[in-house]
User: What shape does this take?
Amino acid sequence: MGTGNSFDFERNIDAALADQQLKKNLRNAMDILVEKRRAVFTDPEALEQLRAAGNAIKRRALSKLPQLLEQLEAKCRQNGIQVHWAEDTAAANRIVLEIMRANDATELVKGKSMVSEEMHLNRFLKDHGIEALESDLGEFIIQLNGETPSHIIVPAIHKNKDEVAEIFHDKLPDTPYTEDVEELTRIARQAMRKLFARVKVGLSGVNFAIAETGTLLLVENEGNGRMSTTVPDVHIAVMGLEKVLEKLSDVPPLLRLLTGSATGQIITTYVNMITSPRKEGEKDGPKEVHLVILDNGRSRMLADPEFRETLLCIRCGTCLNHCPVYVRIGGHAYGHVYPGPIGKILTPQMEGLEQAGVLATASSLCGACGDVCPVKIPIPALIRRLRSESYDAKGDGTVSGHGYKKNLTETLVWKGWELVNVHPALNRLSTKMAGAMGKRLPKVGPLKQWTRARSAPKFAGKSLHDHELEKGGRDD
Amino acid sequence: MARIPEKPTTVYMFGTCLVDMAFPRAGIAAHRLLEREGLTVLFPQAQSCCGQPAFNSGFIKEARAVARKQIEVFPGPLPIVVPSGSCAGMMKHHYPEMFADTAEYPKARQFADRVFELSEFLVRVLDVRLDDVGPPETVTWHTSCHALREMGVIEESKSLIRQLEHVNLVELEREEECCGFGGTFSVKQPAISTAMVKDKIDDIARTGAATVLSGDCGCLMNITGALEYHRVPVEGKHLAEFLWERTNGNRKQL
Assistant: This one.
């Protein structure tokens, strides 16, 4: 998924829309997540203040990102954490592989990490004879079923309880069928415990990396994050370079925004703050901690004053939960690692417009995403900007593949539209023609698409302009 | 907004291209509603479209040319009243954005500050009192995304409906969810768009209302198109037209 020419958005959309079970699962799950968020942010004014604070903290961090990353590296090294830089996902994968080989490890236990998904790490390691084992419950479920996450926070959100019961019964040896949630959880926990007892290297993501102290902060609810980062001898943390914050005091507002927006929690069950490997005299903790800092197009986003705002994202996933498109087509239809509104702006910038520019068309620009974003990313404005880059009239786009959609027909259509709307005489003429010929228009092109499940628009015989003129009212 | 007199004697009306072509009755009704409050309504004949179709499709240069034309057509200090939350949002919020860092910015800003969505103007500026003379009726209300999120005028629109003594307003279950119009989205992603509007008309049908009202003709065109296609016997109507009919005595006369 997400590579080469295998991505057929239209086919994915049609398949998702035809899946009634998926429709029901997504709607139920999104309703719950939306409601939980609403219940935790009850005071609109306080929420606005918090969002403004979150936005300001992330903006400040981005404004001195290179300096903060250097500081983070220095602090981490001082704390005994080994820091690695990866310009792209291939480099990040190689770094992980080298660490695995240096430790003679053939298995990797993973906490949840979207950056590792971005790297397609599991597949890469498999190709090199190493098995990556997911320990987050949702990730565990979809890995058993050979799937990828359909949501950045709740990866198996597209599955309901009965489907999970089927998967456990089919894929886990000697597992009797049960729909009992307690029992299903117990089954997963048992499988997980065995992993943690055995596997020598653990991998996790990072929610915030604090430059001031060299601390890696990780939130989670299942304890698998703490297990993955403390039980194995080696802990590898992977992060996108935008995750760095300046100070420890920057954390509380962002943490509140993250957990409240993501799962409607005031705080998660576990908040892990990792500042060093096991020190002398300590009884637990990994002997080695590695931090892999990934760029993969992020520096290019940073260089553009508008697109830079993409990097404000703290990956809470609430834009997915509130999106009328996501709730209907689900995460897999987007064909790439990051689905939903944030995916629509992130993926084309990472993969290029030729590969993923079409994602920007899948928005009615209703604005729900921008409204709920905890760090106030202007997602609709960035979707518009990507659309503009797709045609790139002036040839000055900054996203790879800019201008890929430029074509004479659309250029002429919009030029014609401009003329009609700038010259009153042409405007009168075209309105009259629409009124006179509206009913006889052939159902081709846009009208064909419109009338797939809607009757054709009806144009009035007499326009508002005509009515106003007739009334003889003053017009200036 | 600060420079606008509390209750002006003259206003501009920007009719919007969709009202002009497909829903002129909504425009006429808006005009009447304003006039009834003692205002002189100016309708510059050289007005056309707010520019949003091109703006949202990625054709910024073309959108800017059309925006420039509207700014030129509505000079002077008068408020500009718009019977659409979406077009008003475009002119109020995106015009200044489109001309940011250019010499035209002050003009765009000055223009934007004078833009009002119709129900916002009727309630906040004119403080209208409606005298309902129509028969008892149940209606439902569709919230347009831009009226809600860009203009923040939904409470004003609904408060006007609630002023009507014999009208029972039944709200939609998912009132704040997009109907799937989205301008060119409706034809660029027709499968998603029609799935969205199908859910919307199902929601509308469940209210049992015979009429769905909205302040935006883009949404109305989408919703009524789907209602008709699926043979759901609910009529779609612009809020202005409905308010005028309910309060005018003669329902047919505009």
